[in-house]
Amino acid sequence: MTAVLIRRGNLARLAVGPVALAVGLGALVIAQGPGRSTTYAGHSSLTATLTVAAGLALVGAGLVTALDRPAARIGDLAVLAGLVWFASVWVGWDNGPSLMRSLAMLAAGFTFPLLLHLALAYPSGRLRGAVPRALVSVVYLEAAIATLGRALFRDPFFDPNCWANCTDNLFLVRSLPPLARGIEVADRWFTAAAAAALVTVLGWRLLRDSRPARRALLPVALPAILLAVTVIAHAIALQRMPLEDPSDPIFGTIFLIGCVGVLLLAAGLAWAAVRTRVQRRAVARIATSLGQAPPPGSLQAALAQAVGDPELQITYWLPDAEQFVDATGRLVADPAAAPGRAVTTLLRDGRRIAVVSHTAALPDLERELGAAVRLALENERLQAQALAQLDQLRASRIRIVEAGDSERRRLERDLHDGAQQQLLALSYDLRLARTQAGTDGDAATGTLLAEAIGQAQAALGELRDLAHGIYPAVLAEAGLTPALASLADAAPLPVEIHDAAEGRCPPVVETCAYLLVAEALDDAAGRDASHAIVSVVQDARRLVVTVQDDGTDRTATMVQLADRVGAQDGQLAVEPTRLRAELPCG
Amino acid sequence: MRVVVADDTMLIREGIVRLLRDAGIEVVAEAEDAQGLLHQVRLTGPDVALVDIRMPPTHTDEGLVAAQAIRAQHPQVGVLVLSQYVEPSYALRLIQEQPERIGYLLKERVFDIATVVDALRRIVDGETVIDPTIVSRLVGRRRRQDPLAALSVRERQVLELIAEGMSNRAIAARLYVTERTVEAHTTQIFQKLRLPESPDQHRRVLAVLAFLRS
């Protein structure tokens, strides 16, 4: 349905071409003949050429833009402004058809409102922000009121300052020269004020927008500012010299600059249309340029390059987790529009797959992305989803290891604070009893109690070693270096330690390194090693622990160690007589 | 001898206070945490503080920290740390940071009152006390080329007693030999191990312990 409408609209637009040509050539004929003294165009061949060229260029650029992006009204606005541009010439058709001159007089009043609307709606076709919306509405309203007033009450014949058309107004109801004069002055100053507002809004946008948005805005904003300045200058000149005269150098110059402004505006529009086309091709080529297995994030980089917006960001939607992630699966904030930035939600088969945050100067991204790019997006989304799940898995693994470690720690404390205190209390009672037995002269009981005290002491010793085996308190309190030294003190084989670790690592990393060395030493002893060398090297980001021995070749796979190291994103190399682990630290 | 006892377990604390009093030692104050201990030491100015290594709030090494604070603020007050851990690192940390009048005994000896009283007396006399279990752990450490193999059995005994912090006189008494004999053994040991001999009691202990750990 929409496609049909667009096609029909395009046919109408194509028909505008010949019409505009006719209107333009008609203006040229008028300027060369009957309007020689009543139009700016008639003043010289330069003004004639510029006038016609400016109007036709605007129509042409408008058609290119409209055919390229029919949904945006920018092109239509430009076509309309281009057609209306010629009205000022047609007004000056001396002795021409009265209806034509009267209509042209009315139409001429809408030239500036249309150009203002165009400049403010560029590039998306939508007016963003309350101030531009209000400005455009007020300017159209004022132009309509002034035109109506002019049509009903301005009798050109009684206008002392008339120059282009001093005879014809078919719509005149009542001749009210003072009112007509008031309307002219009010309209002039209102238009100048609107032009100043336009300069302010555009200037503010240029200052505030991101770089890519500014780059896209400049080709239209700068000519529009130039045009607005000529409008203001024209109002001031009229105030000083109420009778407009094309042969006056000031008025002539202002008119010429205005023509140049319109030409530049048309050129800017045409350039933007061409650029959009180039970008579209680049976007369409993305899918083929990505290759077989693009690394995460390459789609974003390719799209950013294709549309010339380095800040472009693609975020993927994970429907199960109800979260946005980037291409690497990292959680990101919900994408939101910001000044100069827009967000486009991309769907595939009706499902949201990604949200692109891009410069506001890039309208219709949704439409530009072809099926191939969408497929690539869906692929990258699935990859991001897998990466996000991997991240969660990794986090859960490390949590399990940490939970195990803190459980060991708790157990160690419980043994000290519970069982050990009980045994100490028992040995205290036994000693009191033995002293009593000694006092009573009961040698046999005394001997028994002495034995019991010995057993209690032995139990305390075993309990102490058990607790140390479960978790060495020195590791948590003093760090890896003293813990490894104490491991070497009690090791079943000579151990040489080359420890270059300076700072502390997270507890889970230190525990991992400690258990690795402890297990490696046990394993080395089991393989009849005569000695082992432990080395610990630490740099800014990682801890590298190596245990080398001279025993027979290892047969165990050390799978538990590998799990523990892997849980921390570390790497374990298991060689016949050497274990090497790289652990992230910091 | 005036002693302050610090242990967060009431049962243990009362037991040790009673045994110390029975042994004729004056317990001037008790404390259940490091802060209370420091307060009592300041208040009563004891000869020695008997301190458990694990105390509130974290039950880790508060005792060690308190011991160092006492030695730094009250150099005349000795400290005997009772520890659950056979950790030469802790013992070394103590005597390296605060020389003299310091001891590290295993917690399990707390009711072996003769050992505790002996340790307290040695600390008051200016000696250092290292638990024999720690020393034997260090002496028993496996070495590739064991320099200790060059020592005779008696020299090894003397070395261990030196490491425990004993003076030549105390070693002589323990081994039933003359002090001259102990001096001769000591010279031999230091020569064989290529350690610089020092007349300073404390430095001697440190040198031997550091050697054993290396």
Description:
The complex is a heterodimer of chains A (586) and B (214). With 586 residues, chain A is of the alpha+beta class. Chain A contains 18 helices and 9 strands. Chain A has helices spanning 2-32, 45-68, 74-85, 87-91, 98-108, 111-121, 130-153, 177-208, 211-240, 249-289, 298-307, 365-368, 371-440, 443-470, 473-478, 480-490, 507-526, 559-567; strands at 313-318, 323-325, 341-348, 351-359, 495-499, 532-538, 542-549, 571-575, 578-584. Chain A has a 5-stranded mixed sheet, with helices on one face. The mean pLDDT of chain A is 87. Chain B is an alpha/beta fold. Chain B has 2 domains: 2-130, Rossmann fold (3-Layer(aba) Sandwich), CATH 3.40.50.2300; 136-213, Winged helix-like DNA-binding domain superfamily/Winged helix DNA-binding domain (Arc Repressor Mutant, subunit A, Orthogonal Bundle). In chain B, helix 2 packs parallel to helix 3 (62-73) and helix 8 (168-175) packs across helix 9. Chain B is globular and about 50 Å long.
Strand order of the largest sheet of chain B: 2-1-3-4-5-6
Main sheet specs of chain B: 6 strands, parallel
Q: What CATH architecture of the largest domain in chain A would you give?
A: Up-down Bundle
Rough outline of chain A: rod-shaped
Q: Tally the structural domains of chain A.
A: 4
Mean pLDDT of chain A: 87
> Could you list the spans of chain A in which at least 5 consecutive residues all have pLDDT below 50?
none
CATH-defined topology of the largest domain in chain B: Rossmann fold
Keywords:
heterodimer, A: 586 residues, alpha+beta, Rhopdopsin 7-helix transmembrane proteins, five-stranded mixed β-sheet, 18 helices, 9 strands, rod-shaped, B: 214 residues, alpha/beta, Rossmann fold, Arc Repressor Mutant, subunit A, six-stranded parallel β-sheet, globular
